[in-house]
Design brief:
By secondary structure, the protein is mainly β. Helices cover 0% and strands 59% of the residues. It has no helices and eleven strands. The strands form two sheets. Strands 2, 4, 5, 6, 9, 10 and 11 form a seven-stranded mixed sheet that branches. 29% of the residues are buried.
Length: 119
């Protein structure tokens, strides 16, 4: 059974930092993409940051220069460093992992972790 376990969310003041981690376990296959998305009530889940197996990264315009994504393929983890947080960064953050398993594409989601930015 595949599991993506997220950690690191919480309450932080504006300008503060958090570090989100996602650990993958189970029969996931060969990773080719790891990403973080976020969602607020009544809105769609949007991409925050992503990283490919080759190390190419992609960021939402609103987080460029503030957030950094990294991954450790050997440990099956993906991390998102959130700096200079703003109230509008408040959301549930979801880890997403895509892979190839038995020659088929797979798409896995974590359970989500709440990030609240407030004074």
């Amino acid at each position: 059974q595949v599991q993506l376990v997220e950690s690191g969310g919480g309450l932080v003041q504006p300008g503060g930092s958090l570090r989100l981690s996602c650990a993958a376990s189970g029969r996931i296959g060969s990773f080719n993409y790891m990403g973080w998305y976020r969602q607020t009530p009544g809105k769609e889940r949007d991409l925050v940051a992503a990283i490919t197996l080759g190390g190419n990264t992609d960021y939402a315009d609103s987080v460029k220069g503030r957030f950094t994504i990294s991954r450790d393929i050997a440990k099956n983890t993906v991390t998102l460093q959130l700096n200079s947080l703003r109230p509008e960064d408040t959301a549930v953050y979801y880890c997403n992992v895509r892979s190839i398993l038995y020659s088929l594409p797979r798409n896995f989601w974590g359970q989500g972790t709440q990030v609240t930015v407030s004074s």
